[in-house]
Amino acid sequence: MPRITVTVDGVTYEEEVEPRLLLVHLLRDRLGRTGTPIGCDTTNCGACTVMLDGRSAKSCSVLAVQADGCDVLTIEGLAADGRLHPLQTAFHEEHALQCGYCTPGMIMAALDLLKEDPDPSEEAVREGLEGNLCRCTGYCNIVRAVRRGAQAMSGREVSAS
Ligand code: FES
Ligand code: FES
Asked: If you measure from the C-alpha of residue 50 to the centroid of ligand 1, how many angstroms do you get, rounded to a whole number?
């Protein structure tokens, strides 16, 4: 079996993987990153989104062997020094989740969006997150949370919304 080296949330792993193994299964079943959920079998929902070498990727659409030599960031690597990432805090403060199933993917996709556009309009957030589905909250609070997180990340004053 192919042997790969992958860094996940700052920890480097060497794993033997079947060529057909999906990255999401490597993360969840082998490396214990169950904070990255699987929400569909059609690469449609975005729940499994992680950062792969600094860009968001649906980890159910990537083979583990394709992640050889890559740096993966999951929702579990986002908090630093026991403090939530500003996007995590914003999702909490804006009540941007109910069941929370979509939340890891939403936050990782938002992280990618904010790298490109640190101050996105509501429309830009909606467009940026169009590959991520939420079945329960609706999108208004999620959009507000992303914009609030963007403000916090850039040090701008966080407006009440
Ligand atoms: S589980 Fe990956 S897109 Fe739905
Ligand atoms: S909060 Fe339940 S799917 Fe989004």
From this structure: 11
**CATH code of the domain containing 132:** 1.10.150.120
- Does 159 reside within a domain? no
Q: At what angle do helices 140-154 and 86-93 cross, to 10 degrees?
A: 140
Q: Is the CB of 23 under 6 A from ligand 1?
A: no
* CATH code for the domain in which residue 35 is found: 3.10.20.30
Q: Which amino acid is at 41?
A: D
Full-model pTM: 0.95
Note the pLDDT tens digit of each residue in 37-79. Answer: 999 999 999 999 999 999 999 999 999 999 999 999 999 999 9
End-to-end, the C-alpha distance of the chain in Å comes to 52
51-54 own/partner pairs: CB under 8 Å, 24+ apart: 51/108, 51/111, 51/112, 52/23, 54/115
Distance from residue 132's CA to the centre of ligand 1 (Å):
9
Distance 106 CA to ligand 2 centre (A): 10
Q: Do 43 and 100 fall within a single domain? A: no
